Amino acid sequence: MSDQQDPRAPRDVPVLLSLLGLVAAFAVGLWAGIHYMSHDTSLFYGLIAGLSFGAAFAFGQQIKNRFVPPKVKTTDWKVQAPGAADLSPARLAAQQARKINVEFDDDEIRTVVRGAKREGIAWNELSDVTIRISDDALPQPQWILAGKSGDGIKGVLVPNDADGLEALMDAMKTRLPGYDNDKNYETVIAAMSAMEGSFHVWSRPAA
After folding, report:
1. Distances (CA, A) of 119 to 14, 35, 101, 109, 123
2. How far apart, in whole angstroms, are the C-alpha atoms of residue 86 and residue 95?
3. I need a surface site. Which of 76, 92, 96, 132 has the fewest CB within 10 A?
4. How large a percentage of the chain has pLDDT more than 90?
């Protein structure tokens, strides 16, 4: 296979033509400059002089680049984003062991760790939903689902990255009276963009 030059690639201007262009542009610029001074600073001659000296500079750069190629700047740094692939197998196993899922049915909401129930609250006992962001190195929103039962106040803590949270949020819109409104939506959006604080989302209306 024969090597063919890409017709779209820029062609190098011969040095001789660049030299002739430099001399011609400089001569025209000098001529226009003299007439500019002797004709009461005529705008026409001033414009010709400016364009000519600009062209002379461009030809000069072409000649310089042919003999002294411009240096290409290089960097030796790389952006490395931490991820699961950077964790050791032991740390990955520990992370999965602590992973909290949230489940629900017609009766209750519950958090689950490795298949075992951790906390739970009945839908009819749920009276308050709040999002809390702790002032930690890596702020993580947590949903606090609280309410009263026969044993007193109880609640469920659901991390924002828990599997099943999106399905629970959709269920809240239909199961919790007054939950699905613009104010609640704006509160959730504000909480997701915050670094710390407590954001009250919903309370059960008084009977």
Report:
1. 80, 92, 11, 8, 13
2. 13
3. 76
4. 31
How many angstroms separate the CA atoms of 133 and 142, rounded?
6
pLDDT of residue 12: 58
Q: Which two tokens stand for residue 9?
A: 């690639």
Contact of 153 with 141, CB cutoff 8 Å: no
Taking the C-alpha atoms of residue 54 and residue 77, their distance in angstroms, rounded to an integer, is 38
Whole-number Å distance between alpha carbons of 179 and 172: 7
Q: Which two tokens stand for residue 117?
A: 């129930």
Which uninterrupted H or E stretch holds 153? strand 152-159
How do residues 132-145 score in pLDDT, each as one tens digit? 998 766 678 999 99
Residue in the block written with tokens 């490795």: 114
Please give the mean pLDDT across all residues of the chain: 75
Strand, helix or coil for residue 4: coil
DSSP per position, 51-94: HHHHHHHHHHHHHHHHHSPPPPP----------GGGS-HHHHHH
Helix axes 43-67, 15-38, angle to 10 degrees: 160
